[in-house]
Amino acid sequence: MSDLIPAEPSIPAEPIGDAVQSARLRALLRYWAEKSPGRAMPFRHQIEPTEIPRLLPIALLADVTHAGARMRLLGSEATAAYGKETRGAQVAEIQFGDFTVPWLDAFFRVIQSGKPACAAGTYRRGNELCRIETVLMPLTEDGSSVNQIFGGLLIRPILRGRASGQDRTLDFSRNSAGTMSGGVDSKRAST
Description:
Structural class: alpha+beta
Distance between the termini: 17 Å
Number of strands: 7
Helix content: 10-25%
Order of helices and strands: HHEEHHEEEEEH
CATH architecture: 2-Layer Sandwich
Radius of gyration: 16 Å
Low-confidence stretches: 1-14, 162-191
Largest sheet: 7 strands, antiparallel
CATH class: Alpha Beta
């Protein structure tokens, strides 16, 4: 099941920020919020890839169209985890099994509200069960309408614990020193 929580305009990152589990996705959300102080959303030209190089592998950018949204780019890590190129595809064509509805709903919420949205759930990639999480944020060209969606997508395998039967999620995110942690996400492993 997913939780889609749009942010309130007066505090753009806090309500949704608490719902986002991944530190890397929270970093993207903070970056977006820093670019839009006092405004509902930043302009596209304010998003500078050179300022977030460690987040680019999970970043996404989609153009808002009359038909919904079309993927402009999806970072290399997210593309590899999904298993195929999505550039140029309608977002509705990008299928995640049971997670497809929350994925599309998050895009719809951003387009309609002009506020960030997030979703999390599971996705079966072949025989492998994965944890999937996304955060999506609006961008503008004219200062008021949503023209693009900026965000991130994480897909991580869930491993079944041999003795305990508990699910564990691999987290290969970078720690505060910028190095790969490469271990099991201890917060999830202990629950």
